[in-house]
Design brief:
Elements: E1 5-9, H1 16-25, E2 30-32, H2 35-43, H3 48-54, E3 55-59, E4 66-68, E5 81-83, E6 86-87, E7 92-93, H4 98-101, E8 107-110, H5 113-124, E9 131-133, H6 149-158, E10 164-169, E11 186-191, H7 195-201, E12 202-203, H8 208-220, E13 225-232, H9 238-252, E14 258-265, E15 267-268, H10 272-279, E16 290-292, E17 298-300, H11 302-319, E18 325-327, H12 332-339, H13 349-361
Parallel strand pairs: 1-2, 1-3, 3-8, 5-9, 9-10, 10-11, 11-13, 13-14, 14-18
Antiparallel strand pairs: 4-5, 6-8, 7-12, 15-17, 16-17
The structure holds iron/sulfur cluster.
GO molecular function, one term: S-adenosyl-L-methionine binding
Protein name: Radical SAM protein
Organism: Desulfatitalea alkaliphila
C-alpha cells in the first residue's frame, strides 16, 4: 500500500531521518504534538487496518529495543529475540497477526537509532549467543528505501562472533545489502507459501519465484539463508502445491547454506477472524477445521497439523537431509509425531538452533 501521510512525533522533528523520509516519500511531514491523537483518529475510521498502512508515524521507541519473542509456556519456544525497529507493514496479508496485535495497527518507525545501537552493543557484549531478528512486528526490509539502518545492523553484527541477525521478509529489497561485508553473521530469510496463497492472501507481496531469486542472489554474495513456511494453510490440493514449492526452493538454493527452516500452520486469535472477513471477504482461510488451542488461538485440529507437517518435513529432508527443521509454537506430541523426536533429546530447541547458527554461520 502507498503511504499517503507522513506524521512526525514532535520529539523527533529534528532527527535527520525525518527529513530523509519526507524527501524520499515526497510528502510534507505533519508534526504531531501528541501521538494519541493520531491513534484516536485511526481507531474511529471504518477500516483502521488499511488506514494504518497508509499513514506512517516517525517516532521514538521509549521502551526496550530488544525484546523476548512472546512465546507461550504451553508450546515449545525457541528463545528468539526481537529487535524492535518499528511496527506494522505496507504489505497486506489476510492472516497478518499484526492487524489484531496493535490497537490500532499503525505504521511506525523508530528513529532514535543511537539508543537502539547502544542497547544492541550492550546485548552483544554480554557474551551469550543471540538469535535476533527485526521481522516480528514488521517486515524486516520494507524500510530499505528510506532508512539505512539495515546495512548498519549487518555491519555491526559482522564485528562480533557470537550472535546472528535474521532479516525476515516477503520483499526483494536486498539491493543495498549485497555488497556488504557481512561475515555470514546475518541470515537472509524469506517466508514462503504456495503461489495460490501468495496470490489470494498476501496482497502487495512478491511472487514465490521473486523471493527465491532474491535468496539465490544473497547466497551468491555469501549470505546464509533461512525459510519460514508460516502460515501453512490447508485447502484441497495444498499437499501437492507445498511439495512443488519445496522442489522449486531447492532448484534455487544450496541445502548446506540453510541455517533453519521453520513450519507453523495457520493460527490466529479469535479477534482476527472478523477483521479478515471484513477486509478479505473472498478469503476462505478462516473456514478450516479449527480448535481453540491452550493459548486461546484458533488452530487446525492436531491430527491435521501433524499430517501436513510430516509431509512437508519429508519433502524438505528429501532435498536437505541435514537441514534444521523446527516448529514455531507446537507441543511435544506434534514434534514427536511429525519429526520423530523431541527437541529435549537435542538439548532443547534453543540449543538446536544455536548449534545450526554455529554450523552454518560460523559463530561460536
Ligand atoms: S508481510 Fe508479514 S508483516 Fe507484512 S502484512 Fe504480511 S504477514 Fe503482516
Amino acid at each position: 500500500m502507498t503511504i499517503t501521510h507522513l506524521y512526525v512525533d514532535r520529539t523527533v522533528a529534528d532527527n535527520s531521518l525525518a527529513a530523509r523520509f519526507a524527501e524520499r516519500l515526497g510528502l510534507t511531514p505533519i508534526i504531531v504534538p501528541d501521538t494519541r491523537q493520531l491513534y484516536d483518529t485511526l481507531k474511529n475510521e471504518a477500516d483502521p487496518w488499511s488506514g494504518g498502512k497508509q499513514r506512517l508515524l516517525l517516532t521514538r521507541n521509549q521502551g526496550a529495543f530488544i525484546r523476548q519473542c512472546p512465546g507461550t509456556k504451553e508450546y515449545i519456544c525457541c528463545d528468539y529475540q526481537i529487535l524492535h525497529i518499528g511496527t506494522y507493514c505496507t504489505m497486506d496479508c489476510a492472516y497478518c497477526i499484526l492487524q489484531s496485535y496493535f490497537h490500532p495497527p499503525v505504521l511506525q518507525y523508530f528513529v532514535n537509532h543511537e539508543d537502539l545501537l547502544r542497547e544492541l552493543d550492550a546485548a552483544l557484549d554480554q557474551g551469550r549467543t543471540l538469535r535476533i531478528g527485526t521481522g516480528e512486528f514488521t517486515d524486516s526490509l520494507i524500510w530499505e528505501a528510506w532508512s539505512d539502518l539495515t546495512p548498519l545492523l549487518v555491519e555491526r553484527f559482522a564485528r562480533q562472533d557470537r550472535s546472528v541477525l535474521e532479516l525476515k521478509t516477503k520483499t526483494t529489497a536486498i539491493g543495498d545489502l549485497l555488497d556488504l561485508d557481512h561475515r555470514r553473521r546475518t541470515i537472509m530469510a524469506w517466508s514462503l507459501n504456495t503461489p495460490r496463497i501468495i496470490a489470494t492472501q498476501e496482497r502487495g507481496t512478491t511472487s514465490l519465484k521473486a523471493r527465491l531469486r532474491a535468496a539465490a542472489q544473497c547466497q551468491d554474495r555469501g549470505y546464509p539463508l533461512a525459510f519460514h513456511f508460516d502460515p501453512i494453510v490447508l485447502y484441497p490440493g495444498c499437499e501437492n502445491e507445498y511439495r512443488q514449492v519445496i522442489d522449486t526452493l531447492f532448484q534455487y538454493v544450496d541445502p548446506g547454506n540453510i541455517v533453519w527452516i521453520s513450519m507453523g500452520t495457520l493460527r490466529f486469535m479469535p479477534a482476527l477472524q472478523p477483521v479478515i472477513q471484513q477486509r478479505f471477504p473472498d478469503s476462505a482461510i478462516v473456514h478450516g477445521e479449527f480448535i481453540t488451542g491452550i493459548d486461546n488461538k484458533m488452530r487446525y485440529f492436531k491430527p491435521l497439523r501433524i499430517d501436513i507437517y510430516r509431509r512437508i518435513a519429508g519433502w524438505i529432508r528429501h532435498h536437505a537431509p541435514n537441514a534444521t527443521v523446527y516448529f514455531c509454537m507446537e507441543d511435544e506430541t506434534v514434534w514427536c509425531n511429525s519429526l520423530g523426536f523431541s527437541p529435549d533429546t537435542h538439548g532443547g530447541l534453543p540449543a538446536m538452533l544455536d548449534q545450526s547458527a554455529r554450523r552454518v554461520c560460523g559463530v561460536h
